[in-house]
Amino acid sequence: MGLSLEEIFEEFSDLDREDQSKYLLELGDDLPPFPTALRTDANRVYGCQSQVWLSADVSGHGNDAVIRILADSDSNIVRGLIAILQSAYDGMTAAGILSFDIQAVFRQLNLQQHISPQRRNGLRGMVERIQLLARKHAVTSGLPAADTAASPGTVLPLCPAPRFDVQQIRRQFPVLNRPLGDGRFPVWLDSGASSQKPACVIEKEREVEEQYYANAHRGTYQFGVRIDEEFEATRELTANFLGARSPDEIVFTAGTTAGLNLIASGWALPRLRPGDEILTTVMEHHANFVPWQQVAIRTGARLKLIPLTPDGRLDASAFDSVFTERVRLVAVTAMSNMLGTINPIREIARRCRQIGACLVVDGAQSVPHLPTSVAADDIDFLVFSGHKVYGPTGVGIVYGRQSRLEEMEPVVFGGHMISEVTVERSVWSRPPAKFEAGTMPIVQVIGLGAAIRWLQQLGLGAVHQHEEQLTRLLFEGLREIPGLRIFGPAPEHRGAIVSFRIDGVHPEDLAALLDSHGVFTRHGHHCTMPLHNYLGIAGSTRVSFGVYNTADDVQAFLKTLQQARRQLL
User: Fold this and answer.
1) With b meaning 16 or more CB within 10 Å and e meaning fewer, what string describes 97-120?
2) Number of separate domains in the chain
3) Residue 231 belongs to a domain
4) Is 527 a catalytic residue?
């Protein structure tokens, strides 16, 4: 008979971190023998770096039947975890197991600091196997099966938002406080392409590189443990930031484009067939248009567009006609990167549920500026990039509803994304590891965590209010300029993006003159060629705001724009 859970708690509480790790190994040494006959594939638990077998012995009948957990591993520290599970569940009935809060045990023992994320996957797999065995017994015995939905995991609390002080915020961005060659300070109006980085993000990346860099999910030495903790803390922080149900619904990618292509190749390509329809819009960035276009070409599905209103919003009166039973996938931006239009994602999600379609949301422009809640909005997939939320380049996020990630196929193969490899076959890890093959952008992920934490402290409600005021101020000034056409809806229906064109002025010439005065904007088609063709123009000038922009920036832009217009006409 092993130690009771209370005895383990008592021992752990008296030990420091190093001795706690040693104690886990000692628990593994004392694990009862596991019958050789039970070391079968049917009893294997996948998802851990080591081999794990788990079975159950039921004694008694009906409500009073007791389930005894039998398990073993070729890793001693995993054997220690098994000993904890056996102590926790010892002598429980099926109903007891299904209602028991095992996560509370893990939190009290602070197991996260002792085991790698890959082993955490294995631990979760063992818990789910135990719950499955209990559920099967409950069903076969005619007992009510308890709700055993996966725990949402640890949710980090939101930091309190201080008063929104744009001058104080601006001082946190080194590049905006460094004068240009002519002594002017830059007026950065291209956050829609990429945002600048606050000092805390820059310093966080430097800290990792200088103090404890290591590969993630590989080593159990001090640097490796620290990296794993910070890497996975970013996953939890991102889940909280997006309103996800679990950190396991957060997949790290190289960016929005990589994330959308992952969904297109891993979910859409294996499922769509001739006659199916993909519903999207003409306002999409190429990253959320070309992948679905190519899926349609390769599968024989039909690409269909939701019509727009004259002011650049989705035409809700057409929803009944376009959301049909043939639609299998809907891909839409939450906020247009050219028109600035904020789309009705919750209503689109409701329509998707009615017809059984999968909803993919491009959040690249919305996530940095608007509060997001993927669970409340009933979104299947949402994708965004780190460099647009004041974080590093080279890292992005795919949020995927757990059931969608489970059914999706991996498209990149290699280390970490497997739980077992033999000559004949490979078994994938559980999501999110299944989609994170090879070495991740480790420093960038941790830098993204610093950016998200910083943005949460500001409060996205305050961010949106500030940027809406700037957008209204810009609108007022642009409307006074003869021959200038603004594309997209009124400020109350758009985010912090305004695109326009002046009759007789080429956007590239205008951008060059603005640049000569230290005002940085975007010109061209903004990776939305179908939209520009729809609008009957070859290109436009785009202003996009960030948290650091001020009313002075808007006035400087408007003054320089007037001067440039007079010079170019």
Assistant:
1) bbebebeebbeebebbebbbbbbb
2) 3
3) no
4) yes
Structure tokens at 433: 């590891």
The 10s digit of each residue's pLDDT in 64-106 is 788 888 999 888 888 888 999 988 988 888 888 988 888 888 8
Evaluate if residue 126 carries a pLDDT over 50: yes
Please check whether residues 357 and 259 belong to one and the same domain. Answer: yes
> For position 54, which CATH number holds?
3.90.1010.10
User: Do 355 and 431 share a domain, yes or no?
Assistant: yes
Separation between Cα atoms, residue 65 and residue 142, nearest integer Å = 12
Confidence of residue 467 (pLDDT cuts 50, 70, 90): very high
Q: What is the number of residues in the chain?
A: 569
Residue 211 included in any domain: no
396-400/250-253 β-pairing: antiparallel
Note whether residue 220 is domain-resident: no
* Stretch 285-301: mean pLDDT: 99
Residue tagged active-site, from 200, 352, 358, 527: 527
**Phi, psi angles (nearest 5°) of residue 92:** -85, 150
Structure token digits, residue 118: 């890959």
Average pLDDT over residues 446-471: 95
Beta carbons of 80 and 11 less than 8 angstroms apart? no
Give yes or no for a cis peptide into 432 (omega within 30° of 0): yes
pLDDT at 146 over 50: no
Residue 268, domain extent: 242-440
Judge whether residue 310 has pLDDT over 90: yes
pLDDT at 497 over 80: yes
What is the C-alpha separation between 1 and 4, in angstroms, rounded? 9
Please tell me whether residues 276 and 403 are part of one structural domain: yes
Provide the pairing of β-strand 540-544 with 522-524.
antiparallel
Q: Provide the pLDDT confidence category of residue 158 given band limits of 50, 70 and 90.
A: very low
User: Does 248 map to a domain?
Assistant: yes
Q: Which residues contact 108 (CB under 8 A, 6 or more apart)?
A: 9
